[in-house]
Amino acid sequence: MSDILTVRLGFMKSFLIKAQTGYVLIDAGYPNKEQKLWKFLKQKKINPKEIKLVIVTHGHFDHFGSLAKIVEKTDAKIIVHEND
Known about the structure:
5-stranded mixed β-sheet, single chain
């Protein structure tokens, strides 16, 4: 398995990176697209709780729209620039 997986959450792509202690998700996609992430994780046999960190690259809705629901299910920490 590659250490970087591409996940489509609407028209944009998110990336799931395998780290030593779990996974890092780069961007959370459009609002209400979290079901696509859960389906992807199930196909890859990844438990949502393995996502330990979500990095939001910038404050556009297509990059943070599903963030709240993803964090609710994963308990992941969030990194985002203070201006976003």
